[in-house]
Amino acid sequence: RLLYTTPGMVTTGPDSLIGQLIITAGFANGQQRPGWNPLPLESMAADPPDVIVRAFHESRAHRQDRWADGAHRQLRAATSGAGLIHIPGSELACGNWRIGSALRRLLRARAQVQP
Predict the structure, then answer these.
(1) Cross-strand pairs, 3
(2) How far apart, in whole angstroms, are the C-alpha atoms of residue 41 and residue 47?
(3) Residue 55 and residue 87: Cα distance in Å, rounded?
(4) Which residue, among 109, 112, 115, 74, has the nearest Cα to 3 in the 3D structure?
(5) Which CA distances in Å does 46 have to 40, 41, 43?
(6) To 10 degrees, the CA torsion angle through 15, 21, 23, 28?
(7) For residues 11 and 114, what is the distance between their CA atoms, to the nearest angstrom?
(8) Which of 42, 45, 82, 92 shows its CA 20 to 30 Å from the CA of 73?
């Protein structure tokens, strides 16, 4: 189960480009609610995802709220056992041609967590 995160602490579920990317790479989406939603912090703490994808975290320009960078210590503790994949925002921005690079990153990660 993979959960996509952004610096603004939002994620997306099915019926989105990111949701399709997650499924295409062979993961189950950790967010089942369609559309863009706040990170499900309580459920992340109770049942952490296996893999977390962080995108757009490389640029300060994309950090809407300094305190909302997913760096809260309880969130870090709850997800410390999860695999972590960093994808540059440029590979996901508005479905541009670099989405293939993001898919390759996810496929490599999937191969590493394959049972």
Answers:
(1) 52
(2) 10
(3) 5
(4) 109
(5) 10, 9, 5
(6) -90
(7) 24
(8) 92
